Give the backbone structure.
Amino acid sequence: MDGLQLSWSSSLRVAHPARIASKDLQGDKILLPQSALEQLLAASSSSVPGMHSFTAFDSHNPYSVAGRRQFRDNDRQLPHPLMFQLINQKNGNTVYAGIREFSADEGEVALSPHLLDALGICESDIAEVSAGRTEDGARIVVRAKQLPKGEYVRLRPMEAGYDPDDWRPLLERQLRSSYTTLTKGSILTVQGAKGEEFRFLTDRFRPEGDGICVVDTDLEVDIEPLDEEQARETLRQIQAKAQKAPGTANGSSVGHAIDIWKDVDGQVLGGDYVDYELPAWDKSRPLAIELTIQDEREVDLYVSPKSNRQRSRPREDEHIFADFSSPKDGVKRIVIQPGNVELEGAESLLISIHGFVLPDSSSDPTPRRYTLRARAVDTDRPAPNGSASAPTAPSSDEEQCRNCLQNVPKRTMLLHESFCLRNNIICPECRLVFQKSSPEWSSHWHCPTHPSASGSTPLSKAKHDYIEHTQHTCPACGPSSPFTFPSLPELSRHRTTICPHKPILCSFCHLEVPQEGDPLDPACEAETALTGLTPHERADGARTTDCHLCGAIVRLRDMAAHMAHHELDKLSRPKPIPCRVALCGRTLYGASAKGTTRVGGQGPGNDLGLCSICFAPLWANLHDPEGKALRRRIERKFLTQLMSGCGKKWCGNEHCKTGRKNLGLPPKGEKAAEAMQIVKGLMEGVYDTHREGSVWFCVDEASQKRRKIAEMLAAEGVYELEWCVAAVEAEGGSLERARGWLGDWAPTKVQRS
């Protein structure tokens, strides 16, 4: 159906951008009303050519049946992708677009900012439709128009200095996610990773025409400068940028993993970030991250824990901990307490060093040098930049000057005060002393709303105003969103908490994705707080899977609660009953891989607590109500073991002649009198049914091996011996599978207690 051309057009009113802000239209996407879809379907069915020449349908005619089926399959279908031509009849501007959905109001078409700009429509040209208002405002003609798939496009940068390493992957991603078509002569805007914009003129296509389709096609992209002057300027800027690349002498340092044992020296250019990572630290003690600035310039410190809920590297508008203060003694310090809730689930700490630059201001090309250290501290250890500069008490022959607060000898106090009052002045708020004629005093300031904020340079004042007293808009939510904040810390709090675009590591699809959701919906926030799942995880967790234990169909987001029920069921399960033969690795009733420990029952006459395999040689089809014959058979079995042995090379029975030889033990009970005395003791163990492992029969090799494996598992101290015997029996003697069986079906000793 790709080659199908629809004949449909309509004149529609342009919807106001404020009413469609929640749709977040990007690229060349539009919204049409539901009636447009119905008209397009009608136009598609009427434009399908006749597939057969039959005038009537005959159910017994195979050709008629096939023709009817083919016609029905082609009926009421639309081309893919669906494309449109938009025409502004007032100025003649034309642009091509793709459809997002059919959810616009009747008589309206919603346009993305790219399309509004291409059509030359300003927001002031669009009328707000309200009750009692009938003015139409801006109108455009929307016409169905299928374009050929593009093979080649030439783009021309609108400014010099575009580096392909910066925008090439961004261009590919943006075309794939936001564009269906490209229009010749239109301006293509690509958003950079640092918020910058790359603008390109769409200059030439192949195949030739006014537009192409960029969906499901291999598009060759060629970038050519507008003229030779732009090409030379671009080359010059790329070379200058290479000289200041990270890792060079004139560029910022390259970030890496650090530890608490070694200080890190580095440098950062104005506007750049140097990213470090602290993978391990003592989480039981407070952690101090200190930044020593060597040249007293503006360098900021940001820290964010890396977890499933925080994946972004810290930036000035997206961080958990930060120190924006101006350097006074050259040291910035962030102390993170071990009980801080932000450290919950933290894999590591992401640390970023930022060379602060005011927006729209030229930065110093000289790198700013620093030393970074991270170390555990004691809670009672004073901060290095604390109150260590407080004046000391004067001695007996000294007196404190009331103006500069220095201790001066009493004999020279009069001379000192006359000089000090003429030249020095003290700030009444911070008690710092300045020279009256110094630029520091003339630039000294205190913020009335932030008592701790102060400084003595114009840059520090401008920085404080930018951070704390300037409105900032969330760059992810967009300029048309209501998320505008009065300060950078509040913007950062939004981006690290409720911002729909905050990246998370989904616990179900295990991908880094936006958390999504509507931060203005109290119900959404309440559900997030109750479930502990982000909106994306709640949607992704609605998929179902089979429980590997019980086979039930469970939603992924409910699997944790479902497995918790299994953990509770473990506590109520009765212990398996091992066979009382000391070397036997079987239970009394058998165990299965599905956790059942009551697979079968016992035969008649087996009241000794032996498994059916161990009791089988003792069973006889005789009437023996008092068990005397059974006792004689047991005694005879013990005498045979002691005096003759079982003859098995694997036997490890210490009450068997062969077993004692295999174990390297001296002979025992080879004479009849001695053997009878030993048998008496062994018979007491047989009939004492409350003693586990008191029956010393020889067993087969597999059972003996399983018993040893079970005892080894029990020696680890996690599971009781009864469960270990059942696990090894259920898994056929496999150690690894037995561990898995225990984890699925057996309670631990801690749970039992």
Summary: The CA atoms of residues 395 and 407 lie 8 Å apart. The chain has 20 helices and 32 strands. The first strand starts at residue 9 and ends at 14. The chain has five domains: 9-144, 152-243, 264-380, 398-442, 612-752.
